[in-house]
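Here is one chain, start to finish.
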Amino acid sequence: PQVVASLTSNYSETRQSTGIGDNTPIEVYAFLSTGSWAIMMTRAGGLTCLIASGQSYETVVEAPPNSDSEA
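Its structure:
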């Protein structure tokens, strides 16, 4: 889509993650060197919408919460 081409050529952002929300693909694009990021969704008909963008993107890997009942 044109939105992806724009994120790549203008901001050097690449897809970092993807998921499905309410039967709609959601993708996060980011450029780790600058921290710029964008979130977009693609509707069933193929329309892609940029729904949020910003700065200070960072990758975080967290352990799941402790499910031990004594914790």
